[in-house]
Design a protein that fits this description.
The chain has 263 residues and is mostly helical. It contains 15 helices and no strands. The longest helix is centred in the first third of the chain and has 14 residues. α7 packs antiparallel against α8 and α9 runs parallel beside α12.
């Protein structure tokens, strides 16, 4: 029997894409070709892959991301319902989903960044994640830091600076790592001139070793070795790590998606 909604329902182009998105490890060259391809049917095929990928979360994530990389100004029509902003969910009649999203999680879902939501220019991703960064639940605030990290927009530095003061260690660590990514988003001098720079320096004295190390790596990646040396007393327990950072031996951050180079 033909699979009406799964991979078996796809045309040849979409089925080939589905198979490639399932590949481990990912073929970076293939993703570059997908993003650059000007085929008039490719967007439709990627949208079909998203619909067919029920139960295949990673495939859905990658197909969404490629669509956004191809055109960050596109509408949200292709987005899976469970990561849509509540207002869009309401328009589609998903009232229970909208209510749950607004009351218990946030708007949009704090995991929407995985699907490339942060890179959409047709939405106010920074505004959305700035609001989520004030949520009661630490897991939602953590998602906000990860979402802000993927915006590649220096306007996200304001909420990230506040994230470095969060009561959750995991959120503060994520905020430090997020600032580190922004050295690819604009002139480093602009980041060093922003109040977030002083917040990173203050984080060198954080009560959590994970936060101290994340802040030190961020400062090292931004080339601020002077601050690291000046505040080396705060990192006495991480002396070996500090030496590696000062010698530019900083481990890369986890990739947000296969073509992510914001190390």
């Amino acid at each position: 029997m033909t699979d009406t909604f799964g991979p078996g329902s796809l045309n040849a182009e979409a089925a080939a894409i589905f198979a490639e998105l399932c590949r481990e490890p990912a073929d970076d060259g293939y993703f570059r070709r997908l993003v650059a391809d000007d085929s008039p049917t490719l967007d439709e095929s990627l949208t079909a892959v998203i619909r067919a990928a029920t139960g295949q979360h990673d495939v859905m994530v990658l197909a969404c991301r490629v669509l956004i990389e191809r055109d960050p100004w596109r509408s949200l029509d292709f987005f899976p319902d469970f990561v849509r902003p509540a207002a869009v969910a309401r328009e589609r009649g998903a009232k229970i989903l909208a209510w749950f999203a607004q009351i218990f999680v946030g708007d949009p879902s704090p995991t929407a960044w995985q699907f490339g939501y942060s890179r959409l220019r047709s939405v106010d991703a920074i505004g959305d994640y700035t609001r989520l960064a004030k949520h009661h639940f630490a897991a939602v605030r953590l998602g906000a830091m990860l979402g802000l990290a993927d915006t590649a927009d220096l306007a996200a530095l304001d909420p990230l600076a506040r994230g470095l003061d969060d009561r959750s260690q995991r959120v503060r660590e994520a905020a430090a790592n997020a600032v580190r990514r922004f050295r690819h988003a604009g002139p480093v001098k602009d980041i060093l001139a922003h109040p977030v720079h002083q917040k990173l320096i203050q984080a060198l004295s954080d009560g959590s070793a994970e936060v101290r190390i994340a802040a030190a790596r961020a400062l090292g990646s931004l080339g601020d070795h002077d601050s690291l040396r000046k505040h080396s007393h705060s990192l006495q327990g991480e002396g070996a790590e500090l030496e590696r950072i000062l010698n530019d031996h900083i481990p890369p951050l986890d990739k947000i998606w296969p073509l992510d180079d914001t190390t």
